[in-house]
């Protein structure tokens, strides 16, 4: 029987995941965590075969987002990690896989896809949510494990946008034209395969660009 540790800062989500995971009778949830600090401590003391985690969780000491994935990968390299996220876009997928995740599952489809992801990762393969595979096909990206690369100026613009500044305010701050800042924002979103400001801000937060 597969031993699973789950982590999410919403108890109701953990309840649902536990029901889905244990429904087949082949998996057992052996521990639950409500944040990155608790998750890392739990995995250190509780043997498990797979970690299922959200990565947009508040933490006191340990890193969140992609930093958490990196820590899990370095400290527990033999334990595959499945990321379950509401921000299911290509940027999240590519960066999560580049930081050591073995699967990315959209929360909207987790009840159907989570059991598939569990079986896939224990076989040593990578699982990608169906909605994300469709986005990859549309974007024409053949190698989803390669993290998207932004230029220094694009990173600066994304960070300032995510901190609450407008395009006009950023232009005034860095002494560039509004059209230049708008173009850098658009280019960054295109590189990340992100189409909405909400997803852009979520990416910036999870990538550690803003607190």
TrEMBL record:
GO terms for biological process: phosphorelay signal transduction system; regulation of DNA-templated transcription. The modification 4-aspartylphosphate is found at residue 54. Pfam families: GerE, Response_reg. Residues 143-208 form the HTH luxR-type domain. Residues 3-122 form the Response regulatory domain. Keywords: DNA-binding, Phosphoprotein. GO terms for molecular function: DNA binding. Gene3D superfamilies: 3.40.50.2300, Winged helix-like DNA-binding domain superfamily/Winged helix DNA-binding domain. This is Response regulator receiver protein.
């Amino acid at each position: 029987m597969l031993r699973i540790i789950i982590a999410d800062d919403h108890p109701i989500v953990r309840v649902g995941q536990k029901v889905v995971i244990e429904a087949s009778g082949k998996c057992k949830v052996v521990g639950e965590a409500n944040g990155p600090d608790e998750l890392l401590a739990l995995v250190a003391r509780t043997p498990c075969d797979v970690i299922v985690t959200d990565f947009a969780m508040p933490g006191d000491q340990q890193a969140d987002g992609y930093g958490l994935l990196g820590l899990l990968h370095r400290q527990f390299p033999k334990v595959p990690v499945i990321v379950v996220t509401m921000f299911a876009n290509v940027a999240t997928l590519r960066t999560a896989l580049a930081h050591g995740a073995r699967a990315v599952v959209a929360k909207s489809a987790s009840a159907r896809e989570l059991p598939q992801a569990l079986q896939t990762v224990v076989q040593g393969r990578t699982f990608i949510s169906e909605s994300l595979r469709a986005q990859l096909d549309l974007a024409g990206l053949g190698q989803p494990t390669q993290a998207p690369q932004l230029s220094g100026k694009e990173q600066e613009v994304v960070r300032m946008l995510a901190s609450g500044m407008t395009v006009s305010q950023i232009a005034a701050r860095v002494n560039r034209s509004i059209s230049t800042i708008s173009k850098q924002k658009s280019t960054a979103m295109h590189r990340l395969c992100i189409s909405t400001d909400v997803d852009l801000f979520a990416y910036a937060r999870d990538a550690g660009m803003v607190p």
